[in-house]
Design goal:
By secondary structure, this protein is of the alpha/beta class. It has one domain: P-loop containing nucleotide triphosphate hydrolases (Rossmann fold). The protein is built from 13 helices and 8 strands. It has an 8-stranded mixed β-sheet with strand order 3-4-2-5-1-6-7-8, sandwiched between helices. Helix 2 packs across helix 12 and helix 8 runs parallel beside helix 9. The longest helix is centred in the last third of the chain and has 19 residues.
Length: 294
């Protein structure tokens, strides 16, 4: 059985339980390369969503290089390895983070967890489905790049958010992910968040560059979910192991995360509003960065 068929079978066999009318929403957040602020975005977005009265669980799906627990200053007793190796359930490893968000911690420095066989992957994804009992929104923080396991998480999600910045390598790698995803599921919604921008026009230019190429060569229209301004206080919050939306709630970057949370809720089927446009971001923020690049 080739790799593509294995992934198609895995996706088909995932049993997602539906215990209420809405169902849990699975959002995969990914990036083509590391160092673009993906995990930091996941953490702060999760807290912003939780403050909007949604029950949020974050799954650290960077299985070999976990860092969500480090960002939040947590020391979990168990992690994802204990599910696939020691037969624990998802409820045995979950820990609570800021504002009551739930965290499914991954391992760090254990290479074998990144090379799961198909049965182990299916067991892992089956356990993830149980999160629906206590979760409205599952944010899946994937590893950077496009490994088989990353692709499995992307395909099981209702929506995919790609974090990108203005670096050429980030843009090229983001397009590579879009190309692979579209090859497996052409209808899969893909949204873009442009991180660490100096102004709105810079963010819009980055999105247009990716979207134009995707439209030309893949026939794929991407969703512009929003922009995150460069802010030196993000690095300060990381050093203090406290999310920036809690450390500096009145900052422009925190306002941007809150706006992303609002837009994501609007995109989900709980209400019928569409995603916000570039112009709405301009109205929300007199966009100037809190701190200088470089």
């Amino acid at each position: 059985m080739d790799q593509a068929e294995t992934l198609r079978k895995l996706k088909k066999n995932i049993n997602i339980r539906r215990n209420n009318q809405r169902g849990m929403k699975k959002i995969a957040i990914t990036s083509g390369k590391g160092g673009v602020g993906k995990t930091n975005t996941v953490v702060n977005l999760a807290i912003a969503l939780q403050k909007k009265k949604k029950k949020v669980t974050v799954f650290d799906a960077d299985l070999g290089l976990a860092n969500i627990d480090i960002l939040l200053g947590l020391t979990p007793e168990h992690n994802i390895v204990d599910i696939v190796k020691d037969d624990l359930g998802i409820e045995d490893i979950i820990v609570e983070g800021p504002q009551g968000i739930k965290i499914v911690p991954a391992s760090s420095g254990i290479q074998e967890i990144t090379n799961l066989d198909s049965l182990q992957e299916e067991k892992l994804l089956s356990e993830i489905s149980k999160i629906e009992d206590f979760t409205d929104i599952l944010l899946i923080d994937t590893a950077a790049g496009i490994s088989d396991l990353v692709l499995s998480f992307l395909l099981m999600s209702e929506d995919i958010i790609i974090i990108v910045n203005s670096e050429p390598t980030s843009i090229v790698d983001a397009y590579a992910i879009i190309k692979v995803i579209t090859g497996y599921d052409p209808a899969k919604p893909i949204s873009i968040v442009v991180n660490s921008v100096s102004n709105m026009d810079e963010g819009k230019a980055v999105f247009d560059q990716i979207n134009n190429v995707a439209d030309r060569f893949l026939g794929k229209d991407l969703n512009l979910m929003g922009f995150l301004p460069f802010d030196k206080r993000v690095a300060e919050a990381v050093r203090n192991q406290k999310p920036v939306v809690e450390s500096f709630p009145e900052s422009k970057i925190s306002a941007a995360f809150n706006n992303l949370a609002r837009i994501l809720l609007n995109r989900l089927s709980w209400n019928n509003k569409t995603g916000d446009s570039y112009e709405s971001w301009k109205k929300m923020i007199n966009f100037k960065t809190d701190g200088k690049k470089g």
